[in-house]
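Let's practice the habit of predicting before peeking. Look at the sequence and jot down your guess about where helices and strands might fall. Then scroll down.
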Amino acid sequence: MADPVSQTITQTNIPEYARPYVESMLGATQQQLFNTTPNAAGGYDISGVKPYQAYSDDPSKYFADFSPMQQQAFGQAGPGGFASTVGQYMNPYLQMSLAPQLAEANRAYDISGMNANAQATRAGAFGGGRQALMQSENERNRNMGIAGILGQGYNNAFQGATNQYNTGIGQLLQMGGQQQQLEQNKINQAIQNYSMGQQYPQQQLAFMNSMLRGLPLQTATTSAYQAPPSTASQVAGLGTAGVAGLGLYNTMNQSDIRTKENIELVGKLPNNLGWYEFEYKPEFKTNAGYGRYRGVMAHEVEEVMPSAVGVMSNGYKGVRYALIGAEMETV
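Done guessing? Here is the structure:
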């Protein structure tokens, strides 16, 4: 018959003066982290872990819309907007630059025609074919000159208007981008405030826990013995080591990363703790369990929920899975 299995149990007694504070802290922690239902004893039973509450389920709430100036720039950038806007930019140039040039050209050709008529009169050809030929040539020169002025004038007006149009669009986009960034900064600050508000209760509880952990608590260590596992339980793979590994008889599981090997991250818990597959190192398998398991790492849990982590009798850290709303699993 196999020898009895030795088990060391460490108990910590809370002084009476500290008990109300510990109970208040644990009650507040339970209310913050878990969904609870009243029980017949006047307390509360944990019915599940409170889900993560996002700032918004609508992705558009995380980003600022286009500003009015950006929307104006987008409207002007279309084909219709380009035609109407460039036309508006061209009109002042045509009125102020091209019109005076045309008037001056017509005046010059009128003078040229008058001079031609005077020459025809002096030559005794006024009203004859020679005068008609001179007038026709003058009109041809007038039309060609005006056409050249119009072509160059409209080309200059279009180029100038296009440059002014592009400059205007660029300025609208730049100033509109500044407006949009200002709105985005407001949204980012609101998200940050929301996140801080969600974390604040846990931060206060962690502070209170650190204060309580500094109190002089009474600790007692006792040794106990239990019968070895039956043949049936060994065949089923639930020997003492397996039970210890799954925490079926102990509220705290061996979770120190120093006791594990072949570690692989396989997911995240709802509270954002890493969920790992691992094996215990050979020197820890006898007490912690053989095979491959899924669970958390004590050092990560300790950062967000120190009350769920404790030091086991072997000097390594363990995790009370009930406090983090999860159960260690076999693979």
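How did you do? The mean pLDDT is 76.
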